[in-house]
Amino acid sequence: MISKSRLKFYASLKDRAARAETGLFIAEGHRAVQEGLKSGCPCEAAFVREGFFGENEETDRLLSNQTVELLEERDFRRLANTESPQGVLAVFDRRGLLAESPAAEDLIVLYDLADPRNMGTIIRSADWFGFRDILVGETCVDIFNEKVVRSTMGSIFHCRFILSADLAADLRALRPEYRVLTADTGGVDYRNRKRGGKTAVVFSNETRGPSDVILAITDERITIPGFGRAESLNVSCAAAIILASYR
Fold first, then answer.
1. Which DSSP category does 195 fall into?
2. Rounded to an integer, what distance in angstroms lies between the CA atom of residue 153 and that of residue 59?
3. From edge to edge, which strands make up the β-sheet containing 160-163?
4. What is the dihedral of CA 192, 193, 194, 200, to 10 degrees?
5. Which pTM value belongs to this model?
6. What is the 3-state secondary structure (H, E, C) of 121-175?
7. Cα(12)–Cα(73) distance, rounded to whole angstroms?
8. Are 95 and 210 in contact (CB under 8 A)?
9. Neighbours of 9 (CB within 10 A)
């Protein structure tokens, strides 16, 4: 039986500072927990609420290889972040998903993204289109925020993240090897971009867009042409369209 102090510790992982200090984060729900356990990302703890087992054969099978804590409804909700939790969550070590530098031919770069659902959807799209490496700027929402993790539908465990403390400096360091493309209004049609070689594609806050500093580092600005009256595309939609053009 889990102690009150340990339960309090895991509940603290809802806070970004606690996640950063411990390197731990919570994944909730069948799909997220399944993908996490299958990925080999270190799992520190797993929790289910009373009456959980027997609902999902795949989840039950994966949890059979873990030490699982059974929680009363009240205690489970202290850890859960959804209004109608599925009854399973696990604590993973984020260091199993981090990289020091990119290894892939094409790199996704995220600048100043604030909405966790947009962040999660972009990670899910990256996984769908086969992009593995994602460079995350220092002003972005925490990618291990529970809303981000849930929005990825397990795809967070299929990618590798480079967490930048100075995105502009990191992009400059990449330029000898990668061409930097930035999604922005007023650029060339994304379908007509220069092809070939390694690329780093920057997606930015949809309200503020890329900063002057980011644009100064950019080799080519790319745009999705619009034909209606909408002011702009949601950044996660724009990312999916541009990533699809790589395949």
1. P
2. 15
3. 160-163, 133-136, 106-111, 199-204, 179-189, 220-223
4. -160
5. 0.92
6. HHHHHHHHCCCCEEEECCCCCCCCCHHHHHHCCCHHHHCEEEECCCHHHHHHHHC
7. 18
8. no
9. 16
Please write down the long-range contacts of 64-73, taking CB distance under 8 Å and 24 or more positions apart.
65/37, 66/37, 66/90, 69/1, 69/2, 69/45, 71/2, 71/47, 73/49
Longest dimension (CA), the chain: 60
Q: Which amino acid is at 215?
A: L
**Per-state percent for the chain, helix, strand, coil, to nearest 5:** 40, 25, 40
pLDDT in tens, the chain (247 residues): 789 999 999 999 999 999 999 999 999 999 999 999 999 899 999 999 988 888 889 999 999 988 899 999 999 999 998 888 889 999 999 999 999 999 999 999 999 999 999 999 999 999 999 999 999 999 999 999 999 999 999 999 999 999 999 999 999 999 989 999 999 988 999 999 988 899 999 999 988 899 999 999 999 999 999 999 888 889 999 999 999 999 8
Asked if 82 and 49 count as a contact pair (C-beta separation under 8 A), the reply is: no
Question: Taking a C-beta distance cutoff of 8 angstroms, is the pair 164, 138 a contact?
Answer: yes
CB count in 10 Å sphere of residue 218: 21
CB of 235 within 8 A of CB of 206? yes
Total residues found in the chain within this entry: 247
What does the block give as tokens for 165?
């403390």
